[in-house]
Specification:
With 249 residues, this protein is an alpha/beta fold. It folds into 2 domains: 91 residues, Rhodanese-like domain (Oxidized Rhodanese, domain 1), CATH 3.40.250; 97 residues, Oxidized Rhodanese, domain 1, CATH 3.40.250.10. Helix content is 33%, strand content 15%. It has 11 helices and 11 strands. Strand 2, helix 4 and strand 3 form a beta-alpha-beta unit. The longest helix is centred in the middle third of the chain and has 13 residues. The two termini are 24 Å apart.
């Protein structure tokens, strides 16, 4: 998030905003951890992995967690959905850090940890479940949240297959110049949305995207407030699932 985008976030009602100029990708690339909130762990459409020894998971684990001891993680990596937010916890900080780094290096874009590991979860009042582990199969399906567009519909729109639809790219002009733009797409950077929304017709469906979905969500909030028929794409556009044709600069 840029300083301009932080200013727009304040206008949209967000409070206590701080900007790390290099962004989350640089933070993660540097090997720094990110932590999931307890609410996201409980309610989110996520994959939770318990990296401890299986007997410890039997004695107590976070609900919905799948037991995959760290030593077996490499063998199970192909079982983990790559578009799923993955949350890890352990009782060994070094193993947890290695697991996060391994998954990120393997192409997983949404990897976070439980703050304080399992003990931190217990101390924070988080619920646990005990008893035999009946299955270690990972079951996860992508669920669209409020205002989200499916990848399938987004792709159709960029191919011109959904009538009366406009696709908006909310990335900066510099990003578009460097990386290209999807077909049938207009570039309106997030920090220009409020000035240029009059360019968008209210009688058409608008699909908006950025690089990961964060800025698209913010643009969506602004357009919805002004009466537009809009949805946003919550997906890293470098993900293999997002294989829309790109026009190179």
């Amino acid at each position: 998030m840029s300083t301009k985008n932080a200013g727009l976030a304040k206008k949209l009602g967000y409070k206590n905003i701080r900007v790390y100029l290099d962004g989350e990708p640089a933070w993660a690339k540097a090997g720094q951890p990110t932590y999931a909130t307890n609410d996201f762990i409980v309610k989110g459409n996520v994959v939770i992995i318990d990296l401890r020894a299986s007997e410890k998971a039997v004695a107590g684990r976070i609900p919905r967690a799948v037991s995959i001891p760290y030593a077996k993680l490499a063998d199970r990596v192909d079982d983990i959905p790559r578009n799923a937010p993955v949350i890890l916890y352990s009782d060994n900080d070094a193993e947890l850090k290695e697991a996060v780094a391994d998954l990120r290096q393997d192409g997983f874009n949404y990897v976070s940890a439980v703050k304080g590991n399992y003990q931190g979860w217990v101390e924070s009042g988080g619920k646990i479940e005990t008893g035999p582990i009946l299955s270690t199969e990972i079951r996860w399906q992508r669920k669209l949240g409020k205002g989200e567009v499916s990848v399938a519909d987004f792709k159709k729109a960029t191919e011109g297959k959904i009538p009366n639809t406009i696709v908006v790219d909310a990335r900066t002009k510099e990003e578009v110049a460097e990386l290209g733009i999807f077909k049938n797409t207009v570039n309106i950077p997030l920090d220009e949305i409020t000035k240029r929304m009059n360019e968008l017709p209210k009688d058409k469906q608008i699909f908006i995207h950025c690089s990961t979905g964060a800025r698209a969500d913010m643009a969506y909030q602004q357009l919805i407030k002004n009466g537009y028929n809009v949805k946003f794409l919550l997906l890293n556009i470098e993900d293999a699932e997002c294989d829309c044709e790109i026009i190179r600069p």
